[in-house]
């Protein structure tokens, strides 16, 4: 090729529409504003997740310190759950509507709406702040709740706010990305965050959101790692299958854990439906009363279990994963405490308590069958997959939390057995079923606002017809 021909080719390349468009994108202030807002939102999720975790640990330690400060402190600790639950329910109803419960159903429901006002009712910075404060109050009150589900709602709200500030139109993708980053930062499990976004949050997952989700998880994870360093949630486990009894434990933990997890979902959905109907005539006062009764149940179970069922259950689960057997009935007691905490409606998640219940169930199975320490990890996989009916998330999140890469196949098998059993017992996934209630609340709120904004001539008269 001659020199003139080469120069002509370079000029044509520089003038091509693709190159000109690429250069204009890199020079666009609007594009850089969107990028910076996106990066800042993702980093903020990581930082807030770390602060939330530290606050949750401090709240739990404060409750157990009070409980261990003599007979007066023990009595006060028994009175704290009913009072704390009632206060949390009142604050949620009065100042932070849509902050109740886990937070994952709200994020799922928000993806169904197009109007920014509808999404903002479920995901806003105000609700995110209330979610954090009231979850800490629940832990300070001894509730059997976790911070991981709330971190999903907080992460989704932050990314939605960042996108709104930058003028980004991909609200559903931002909610998905913020939710994934919340899980990843809460557990330090980036792969589980991505799998959770695909399997649980985005049942209609679209390929074009891949980069958005991965980038958000990466940035949130980097921010979290910068403060806490690299770690595994439950330490490092090297437990492996060593004989036929361990393989039998895989089946028992998978099938039994899945059935037990499905029982939790069925019980929670049924009780929440009844409480919702009972609360409807007087939403605020009856919600407070229901929360106080549930708090009393948590107190009684905590008294029977000598305090083992208070809080997230992290310490018990970690001991079981490391090979220390738990009390044979711990999983049943923790089941009741976690169910009461969820039905109370106070802000708080079920991830950590579910893992503790699963570890307790596996520990009991291991003790009865004479299996090894891996039974606790298998119990977590089976039970967690049964509760959330998301086997890939269950397998990946537990693998990353324990660092036990030698147990990949048993964990996968236990998760799939748990999922299959749960589908037979309860065909309705917990989070997606609950999301319909929050979606219905948004629709009722919108209709109420529309009626208030309608002109008098369009409103019905006393006979039920339209005024003329």
Structural commentary:
With 468 residues, the protein is mostly helical. It folds into two domains: 33-228, Clc chloride channel (Orthogonal Bundle), CATH 1.10.3080; 244-432, Clc chloride channel, CATH 1.10.3080. It has 20 helices and no strands. The chain has helices at residues 3-15, 17-27, 29-67, 71-95, 104-110, 116-122, 125-140, 148-166, 171-187, 190-201, 210-228, 244-279, 283-304, 314-321, 330-343, 351-369, 374-388, 391-402, 408-425, 430-453. Helix 18 (391-402) packs antiparallel against helix 19 (408-425). The longest helix has 39 residues, at 29-67. 52% of the residues are buried. The model is unreliable at 18-22 and 461-468 (pLDDT under 50).
Q: What is the straight-line distance between the termini?
A: 84 Å
Rg computed from alpha carbons, rounded to a whole number of angstroms = 25 Å
Question: Could you describe the largest sheet, including whether it forms a barrel?
Answer: none
Q: Would you report the number of β strands?
A: 0
| Apparent shape | globular
- Fill in the CATH topology of the largest domain: Clc chloride channel
Helix-and-strand structural type: mainly alpha
CATH class of the largest domain: Mainly Alpha
**Portion in strands:** under 5%
Q: Give the helices and strands as they follow along the chain.
A: HHHHHHHHHHHHHHHHHHHH
CATH superfamily of the largest domain: Clc chloride channel
| Separate helix tally | 20
User: Share of helix among residues?
Assistant: over 70%
Number of domains: 2
Question: Roughly what is the average pLDDT, rounded to an integer?
Answer: 83
Low-confidence stretches: 18-22, 461-468
Tell me the CATH architecture of the largest domain.
Orthogonal Bundle
